[in-house]
Amino acid sequence: MDKHILVLGGGYGGLRIIQRLLAANLPKHTRLTLIDRMPYHGLKTEYYALAAGTESEANLRVAFPNDPRLKVQLGEVTAIDVEQTMVHIDGQDPVAYDYLIIALGCEDKYHGVPGAKEYTHSIQTLPKTRKTYQALNNIKPYGHVAIVGGGLSGVELASELRESRPDLNIAIYDRGETILSPFPEKLRRYVCQWFHENDVDLVHKANIDKVEPQLFFNHGQPVEADEIVWTAGIQANRIVQALPVEKDHLGRLALSPHHYLEDYPNVFVVGDCASLPHAPSAQLAEAQGDQIAQVLLARLHDEPLPQLPKIKLKGVLGSLGKKHGFGVMGDTTLIGRIPRVLKSGVLWMYKHHLA
């Protein structure tokens, strides 16, 4: 009997599952479909560089696998009906499935700040990043850019933009007492010093309570900016948040130990839509994707489900422009040129492996 595996989203997690399934011994009558709004995989972890103008979009695209067992269908998912095992696509017929992989990723979380969604820029999707690039690089000389959020995305964007546009006045507004709050103190001090030496202002304990065109309010005080970029948090995709199943406070779906919905064992969730005991990342999505592929293959071959180990992440690497970086690998803190070289190498290996 035919089995149809439907993957929603060709990001890091969805693509990893597809790769693992195509490399395995799939049963003869298994069909595999990927639905994505883009005709290629986008390297989302590097969108900050596109927004800053230091990388071309062509360098951030990777082709989907070319395999006769895989059908790539382009379209925008509008709703998921887990009762009817059907996915609705904008302007197209619904698509039925036997197994569903939800890999729709995340979107910006605006924390209820009035005007934030309407009047700030984003680097969460490729179309939004294109607009952010145009806006930032059209700013007049010596203009002002405000980046709301001092996590990894905000830090990488600010540093890359500093190298791209040395004339601009750049400031990061962060709610914490320091940027990169989850990271070790030695790393935070290094990054703060880099920003100090490169004239990027850091505004700590910020509270952005309203945004208007080219204007925002920090603790009620107006601050003018030519452009404002929002990197202050993420939440699960709105399609996922609409599902009638258990979720966490970020709208991510609660899962069984084998990564499927407890009430719908034919629905798996990977990446930023999944409630997991780790911060969302491409590395986490890929590690989870490896395990989901194992479970799916066991199901397809009518074998017992495998015992899955706890996911262990290798570490985090971040960039400060093209020459400096930072990272944490196990208990080791990395600062300077070495983590930047490592990050470039990891990216090259990833693209080369997919090609």
UniProtKB/TrEMBL annotation:
Keyword Oxidoreductase: yes
Biological process terms in GO annotation: aerobic electron transport chain
GO MF annotation terms: NAD(P)H dehydrogenase (quinone) activity
One Pfam entry name: Pyr_redox_2
Domain FAD/NAD(P)-binding per the UniProt entry, residue ranges: 4-288
Swiss-Prot/TrEMBL keywords: FAD, Flavoprotein, Oxidoreductase
Origin: domain of life: Bacteria
Names of required cofactors: FAD
Family: Belongs to the NADH dehydrogenase family.
Alphabetized PANTHER family for the sequence: 64 KDA MITOCHONDRIAL NADH DEHYDROGENASE (EUROFUNG), APOPTOSIS-INDUCING FACTOR 1
Name the record gives this protein: NAD(P)/FAD-dependent oxidoreductase
